[in-house]
Amino acid sequence: xxICHVNLASGFSGGEQQTLQLIxxxxxxGYTLTVITNPKSALTEKVSSLGCKVYPTSHFLFxxxxxxxxxxxxxxxxxxxxxxxxxxxxxxxxxxxxxxxxIDNPLRNRWLLKKGYEKAGATIGLSQSIVNRIKxxxxxxxxxxxxxxxxxxxxxxxxVEEIKAQxxxxxVIIQAANIVAYKGFEVTIEAAKCxxxxxxxxxxxxxxxxNLREELENKTKHLSNVHFVGKQRNMGDWFxxxxxxxxxxxxxxxxxxxxxxxxxxxxxxxxxxxxxPDIIDDxxxxxxxxxxxxxxxxxxxxxxxxxxxxxxQYITAGKEKMANFAISNxxxxxxxxxxxx
Length: 341
Fold this sequence. Notes:
This protein is an alpha/beta fold. It has helices spanning 14-28, 42-49, 66-69, 82-93, 111-119, 128-137, 157-166, 185-195, 213-219, 235-241, 256-263, 276-279, 294-305, 308-321, 327-340; strands spanning 2-7, 32-37, 53-56, 74-77, 97-101, 122-125, 144-145, 171-176, 202-207, 226-228, 244-247, 268-271, 287-289. The protein folds into 2 domains: 2-149 and 326-340, Rossmann fold (3-Layer(aba) Sandwich), CATH 3.40.50.2000; 157-324, Glycogen Phosphorylase B (Rossmann fold), CATH 3.40.50.2000. 43% of the residues lie in helices and 17% in strands. α4 (82-93) links the parallel β4 (74-77) and β5 (97-101). Residues 162-320 form the Glycosyl transferase family domain. One of its GO terms (molecular function) is hexosyltransferase activity.
């Protein structure tokens, strides 16, 4: 099977990780893959190194050629602007396209965007929340729900030891995300304020960068239990060192970093929003809190901190839940959609 994947994001975040994850699995399944990427993204180099035929382009109007998709069964869209590239290419070549939507935002009221979804051979949401968003705008549609799959990262023992030495004897809670408004880092900071005196052994470590990082760092200089370390590439080491993960987003398509942490064996506390409840069954494999409620977060952290047995229970149940998100399962669901076209 020959598939053309399109992801024109300029960065390399969760969506690009998930695109790469699917590409690797499909190569293992014997697919031939063509990939349209943004030359600024690390995805370009990564898929090139895998032997895929890559066409870098910085805009959806560029790099259209009949030869690109003449042997393809489908074009697979992974990111917003990629939809328009696929629409144009499909008009040129009649190659059908499918759209994976990764964000929980309502579809914008734009004629061309709506037309792009209507003309897609299939639409997919990572979570039930995203599926509902698509149906809100396109009531006659029948979107599929296919989740992301957890990425497994390598672990470097020497780096693990270095991190452990930095937080010696601390109970380490990580939050890993872009430090932007909707990720809710200020909620975790308020919880840290509540816990600093009574639980000095608990250490919050924020992994990420973004436009709010400097502001939040300045506001937390007086907090000894909060540490910003910037964006980290060695996530396997951090998942190994951490004792718990929190994720306090105001909105979330699914939460790929939650999948990764849970798959790595961390108990997770996260907000009840977007696709997160697709991952966390409250009080069974993790804890869900209301959006913006730092007191609920504090209480949940204390409960898990004081109960190693409950943490073990959540870790075991979390790993069992991850079987539903295995890349072998999700890749097979995509293959069935490709064939249906």
